[in-house]
Amino acid sequence: MFAGYVFEETRSWPFEEARKIVERLKRSSKREVILETGYGPSGLPHIGTFGEVLRTTFVMRAFRRLSDIPSKIIVFSDDMDGFRKVPTNVPNQEMLAANLEKPLTNVPDPFGEYESFAHHNNAMLRRFLDKFEFEYEFKSATETYRSGAFNDCLRKILKHYDEIMAIMLPSLREERQKTYSPFLPICPHTGRVLQVPVEEVRVDSSSIIYKDPETGRLEEVSVLDGHCKLQWKADWGMRWAALGVDYEMNGKDLIDSFKLSSKICRTIGGTPPENLTYELFLDNEGKKISKSKGNGLSMDEWLKYAPTESLSYYMYQAPKRAKRLFFNVIPNAMDEYIDALAKFQTEPEEKKPDNPVFHIHNGNPPRYDGCLKFSMFLNLVQACNTSDESVLMSFVKKYAKGCSDETMAFMRNMARFAINYFNDFIAGSRIPAKPRAVQREAMTALKDALKNMDETATSDELQNTVFEVGKKFFVNNLREWFLALYKVLFGADSGPKMGSFISLYGIENTVSLIDRRLADGD
């Protein structure tokens, strides 16, 4: 469908990122590309995790259009990390508190469903990644450490211990410098991940000596096969080298960590991955969303009010710009997604890969031949004063005759989403304004003009009528006329194209709506 030169020239960010990988391959003999995204299962997966995997998928798909070298995404769960803090949004808080500092795969599942808290959260992560048909390979830190897959790189970390300490110590506070070691032994007595200074490094036996913080005795432990875990910056760099990672994104808060991990990766003979630093996902108060706090939106919450495609569209846009993940972003994301679908159908072939829906639908977006947006459905819900999806669709079927079955199904879903959104966030908050004298006169004139029009009038003809009436009463400020319509009819500061709304809702119904609003203002 698309000529090769299109992808070489497109400026969309996934292709820009993919070209970094293409250039990287020119400097190596690798015959497989590894893209990685990490997950810390200390709390329930959140929408930010979804966004990172989605964006990495966009890059992988773009790469596959530029190169025939095989590629895959590894979703890596750092589930051997010590359990540092009890999340506030899970049950059995006391039980979890009793298991602090243990590897997450050794912390009991507070929900009582899986063998550990990490297994529960890993399962949740995989469940929603599978639900949206992501293509990925899942890896568990616990399984990978214990299998010996990291052993060669762990020996290199041990061999270059002093060099890695020289990288890390300047980045730490003076107090932390005294206890820091890249190796975290798993205590054989308590099962806890220990943050203790290393007394001696034994390269020949691949082991370290540390002092047990409870008994004061010196203990020797192998750094291989899961008996030790690396501090996470060392772990990150080691992982890139061991797995051959070519590309990984990270949030703005990890810029310094990425630099340190890159140095460690080079120290043990690896090459740090190509990288995109994205801005953080924020809640409604501008605070970073957190697994432990459960702030911001969840996947299920977004999907109650809009389809996955709208979320994908929101995640695609400007990854280097901070994004607020709260309910009020949903209507605009939905409308902009619909606009992008419509634009895709008429764009020149060479422009299509720059359209977000190209990436959201892997080059084959559905044809949406309807012309209704989510915002129009919200206004229709208010005008009809209904929570009955079939009532909304009765208007849609009259208005959107000839639409494909696929489009009608899409609009039926929009009707359901709009009802949910209106009932939860708009009902009771939109209070129609009482019309002032000139507004009353103008709306009465509009009502009379509509009465003289046929129900078969097009939306353009109806829009022209609205304009003509407005010109008589708001000679120098038509914007004030439309703002009055939105405030009086819908209780909002913005609204739909009035001709389209009247065509959808019907002339007779619109006249009745105006009558009700004028009567309410008496």
Task: Write structural notes for this entry.
Strand 9, helix 11 (255-267) and strand 10 (274-278) form a beta-alpha-beta unit. It is built from 23 helices and 12 strands. The chain has a 5-stranded parallel beta sheet. The chain has a 3-stranded antiparallel beta sheet with strand order 5-6-7, with no helix packed on it. It has helices at residues 4-9, 13-25, 47-66, 93-97, 117-131, 141-147, 151-159, 161-168, 174-177, 232-243, 255-267, 299-305, 308-316, 330-346, 356-360, 374-384, 389-399, 405-426, 437-451, 459-473, 478-490, 498-505, 507-520; strands spanning 33-39, 71-77, 137-140, 183-185, 198-202, 207-211, 218-222, 228-230, 247-251, 274-278, 281-282, 323-324. The radius of gyration is 29 Å and the shape is elongated. By secondary structure, the chain is of the alpha/beta class. The N and C termini lie far apart (61 Å). The longest helix is centred in the C-terminal third of the chain and has 22 residues, at 405-426. Helix 10 (232-243) packs across helix 11 (255-267), helix 17 packs across helix 18 and helix 20 crosses helix 22. 50% of the residues lie in helices and 10% in strands.
